[in-house]
């Protein structure tokens, strides 16, 4: 059902959430339709006794709730409440999504610390102490709510004792009989970890192969069957919290650490493999680029080496017909905007503007102005920030009609639009000779989707997108830079 009703949530959506929090734009991931499809399909699958868990869908549901409750608006339902407007920005939105994902895993295992560490190690790409406390509070609240409802409800039947937390219900795998341990117990723990790592690598390999077959069968991007792979800290904490077995903490840590080392030696983690399989441009913490089996030092390269030199730029005074033709003939998500600081100066970088913002501007003809003899524009009745900042177009079909009319009607050749009130003047830019290693760090840390490259005079000379920094394109471009210097270049 979820495959056809809401493909974005079929069935867990966790790799997509990881990619989104890394800075990738993924459509329909947090829509109401995806929430309903994921909730109903997860409920039916678990209730019917199918061999699947609810961890992945619960993480997705928690992320959707975090996204929706922090924005308090829905284009599908036509709801735009005048509350929490200060959170309607990408940074706060990602923070609430991260906290919601942690609350989802915490409610399943009733492990608030495990949910916090899961988001830290597996889900989030950007972390700070404020986000840690926010996520921990959500995990704690989710665990408390689950325990409170479970204290008196059993299969939607009220059994009394509301608010009475029984230890047997909270601890999923109760370990009551504690045994004394000998140092030799670490040997089977290591062997168990090695076996677990080998089985985990085999599982990841089989999972990816099965999903490739599903991709060929459905002729679309696969939605993998629910499965999970965990890292060291959250696995240990979740096991301790659901078993209450503190005495075996050292053995558990040792077994999990060995399993992770063995598994990483044979294959990448499941989520990393799924991100590559789904072609989601995820940027790792450190770029690993090799040339002739040697790792390249990106400090020796510059932003010029990987940028796209052929850039479509906009001007502060832009013709309506030209702007409509640009949007109709390209699929770029954003454009650099240039202008002259003084009449006798060259065109320099002023900021950037997104494609969706340009589309919203073109839907408001009252801001169009005729060509004037000077380069000044009136600032009467500009559109508000909330008016042009949208996640998706309200009516995509209407925009296509408008673009066709703007490009074919001669009167729009004489109309212009002033982009200055709407551009992002705080947009990041780097100079062409800037270190590639630091360019990568800036791009990933800020969660950018495009980065403008300028020369010493602040003129736009190129742009770097997320796909330019992916391992394979990065290796190909740097290989071209190294080929004239290689000893085999003349052969």
UniProtKB/TrEMBL annotation:
Domain CBS: 423-480
Lineage: superkingdom: Eukaryota
Protein topology in the membrane: Multi-pass membrane protein
Record keywords: CBS domain, Chloride, Ion transport, Membrane, Repeat, Transmembrane, Transmembrane helix, Transport
InterPro entries on file: CBS_dom, CBS_dom_sf, Cl-channel/antiporter, Cl-channel_core, ClC
UniProt-listed Gene3D superfamilies: CBS-domain, Clc chloride channel
Residue intervals passing through the bilayer: 35-54, 96-118, 183-206, 249-271
Pfam family of the protein (one): Voltage_CLC
Molecular functions (GO terms): chloride channel activity
One of the record's GO cellular component terms: membrane
SUPFAM superfamilies referenced in this protein's UniProt entry, alphabetically: CBS-domain pair, Clc chloride channel
Compartment annotation: Membrane
Protein family: Belongs to the chloride channel (TC 2.A.49) family.
UniProt name for this protein: Chloride channel protein
Lineage of the species this protein comes from: Eukaryota, Metazoa, Chordata, Craniata, Vertebrata
Encoding gene (name): LOC421108
């Amino acid at each position: 059902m979820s495959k056809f009703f809401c493909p974005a949530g079929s069935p867990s959506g966790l790799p997509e959430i990881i990619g989104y929090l890394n800075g990738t734009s993924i459509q329909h991931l947090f829509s109401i339709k995806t929430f309903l499809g994921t909730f109903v399909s997860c409920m039916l699958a678990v209730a019917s006794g199918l061999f699947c868990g609810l961890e992945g869908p619960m993480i997705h549901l928690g992320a959707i709730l975090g996204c929706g409750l922090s924005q308090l608006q829905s284009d599908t339902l036509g709801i735009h409440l005048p509350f929490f407007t200060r959170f309607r920005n990408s940074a706060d939105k990602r923070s609430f999504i991260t906290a919601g994902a942690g609350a989802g895993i915490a409610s399943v295992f009733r492990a608030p610390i495990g949910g916090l560490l899961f988001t830290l190690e597996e889900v989030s790409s950007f972390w700070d102490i404020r986000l840690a406390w926010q996520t921990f509070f959500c995990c704690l609240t989710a665990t408390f709510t689950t325990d409170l409802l479970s204290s008196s409800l059993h299969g939607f039947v009220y059994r009394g004792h509301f608010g009475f937390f029984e230890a047997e219900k909270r601890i999923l795998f109760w370990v009551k009989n504690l045994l004394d341990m000998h140092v030799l117990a670490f040997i089977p723990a290591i062997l168990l970890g090695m076996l677990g790592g080998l089985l985990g690598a085999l599982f990841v390999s089989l999972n990816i192969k099965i999903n490739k077959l599903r991709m060929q069968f459905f002729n679309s991007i696969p939605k993998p069957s629910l499965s999970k792979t965990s890292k060291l800290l959250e696995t240990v904490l979740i096991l301790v919290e659901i078993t209450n077995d503190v005495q075996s903490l050292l053995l558990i840590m040792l077994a999990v650490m060995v399993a992770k080392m063995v598994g990483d030696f044979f294959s990448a983690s499941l989520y990393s493999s799924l991100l590559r399989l789904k072609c989601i441009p995820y940027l790792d913490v450190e770029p690993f680029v090799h040339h002739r089996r040697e790792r390249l030092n990106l400090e020796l390269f510059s932003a010029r080496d990987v940028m796209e030199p052929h850039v479509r730029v906009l001007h502060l005074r832009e013709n309506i017909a030209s702007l409509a033709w640009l949007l109709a003939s390209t699929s770029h998500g954003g454009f650099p905007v240039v202008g002259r600081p003084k009449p006798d100066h060259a065109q320099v970088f002023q900021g950037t503007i997104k494609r969706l913002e340009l589309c919203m501007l073109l839907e408001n003809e009252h801001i169009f102005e005729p060509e004037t003899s000077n380069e000044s524009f009136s600032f009467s009745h500009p559109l508000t920030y909330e008016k042009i900042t949208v996640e998706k177009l309200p009516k995509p079909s209407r925009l296509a009609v408008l673009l066709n009319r703007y490009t074919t009607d001669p009167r729009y050749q004489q109309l212009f639009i002033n982009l200055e009130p709407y551009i992002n003047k705080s947009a990041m830019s780097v100079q062409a000779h800037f270190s590639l290693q630091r360019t990568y760090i800036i791009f990933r840390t800020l969660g950018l989707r495009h980065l403008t490259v300028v020369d010493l005079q602040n003129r736009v000379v190129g742009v770097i997108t997320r796909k330019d920094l992916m391992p394979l394109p990065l290796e190909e471009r740097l290989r071209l830079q190294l080929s004239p210097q290689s000893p085999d270049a003349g052969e």
